[in-house]
Amino acid sequence: MKQPVKQPTKQRVPPPPERDAPQKTLERVISKAGLGSRTEARSWIHAGRVAVNGRVIENPDHWVTFDQDHVTFDGRPLTRQKRLYLLLYKPTGYLTTYKDPEGRPTVYDLLTGIEQFISPVGRLDQDSSGLLLLTNDTQLAERLTNPEFHVAKTYQVKCHPPVSEESVAALRQGVLLDDGPTRPAEVRRLMDSETHSFLEIIITEGRNRQVRRMVEAVGSRVEKLVRTRIGSLTIGDLPVGQVRELSLEELRMLKQESSDGKDSQQDAGHADRSSRVAPVVRAKPGRDGSGGARAGKRRGPA
Question: Global pTM?
Fold first, then answer.
């Protein structure tokens, strides 16, 4: 009797080992390590300068786990950079970007001796001044800029023509912009002249040129804008164009507020007003008319 042919047993392929830490794309891993921006990271990866576990990877979207995969850049191990948190009093006339194709000054021209690549937390347009936070802590930056966390940003603005009480009431209720209605804002009238109104406006969003567009929506125009506060973080007596590191207490408060989120607008709105900056800008313009002297060039990232 013919014996049945014995079929070979299939060997079960073991599943890949589970990762103990969340995975991120290779470009984000390089950026989070503080080596450069995500745009720069993509160009380095495409150029074959990055390897993962000994193999050159040219796909910026390749998934890796920083704590478990061995990532090298130009043959050198990629290590986490020290977390850096800087507060800059941005002058007018400076762009909140790393490089400008037209050669205009950027906030990085005001930074000296910074080895890590740091990014601005949100933006201030060229014509605006005030508090700008820069860091390589991408998680904190995301929480501070994400409107879901309700971190308050405080601005002092000079408007022409004067803003009526009806317009102030409209700003407090929220106004309709071309990208949708705004959240209600906290608005305080600081003073009026015959031709201008000086207002303090607190918002928990961060749309492009939002405060300027809100004021335009009620029939006025912002002629001067300075950001004085993010959450509980204030400019204090920092001179225009100068930068300093955050204190441990300031950092602790920011992290707490960006975690609590929903309470930060109320806390900032009812904080001691005496600690805030006097109406509009404190310092006189620098020689270049930008609001402060340039503090030198920053060395670019590796």
Answer: 0.70
Segment 151-187, tens digit of pLDDT: 999 999 999 999 999 999 999 999 999 999 999 999 9
* Radius of gyration of the chain measured on its C-alpha atoms: 25
User: Which CATH architecture describes the domain 85-275?
Assistant: 2-Layer Sandwich (3.30)
With CA atoms as reference, report the closest residue to 66 among 37, 26, 17.
26
- Cα(11)–Cα(220) distance, integer angstroms: 74
Domain boundaries of the chain, sorted by first residue: 24-77, 85-275
Residue 254 in tokens: 């920011």
Quick check: is 267 catalytic? no
Active-site residue among 69, 100, 109, 125?
125
**Rounded Cα–Cα distance for residues 161 and 178 (Å):** 22
Q: Where do we find the tokens 């001067």? A: 224
User: CATH topology for 24-77?
Assistant: 3.10.290
**Predicted local distance difference test score (pLDDT) of residue 203:** 98
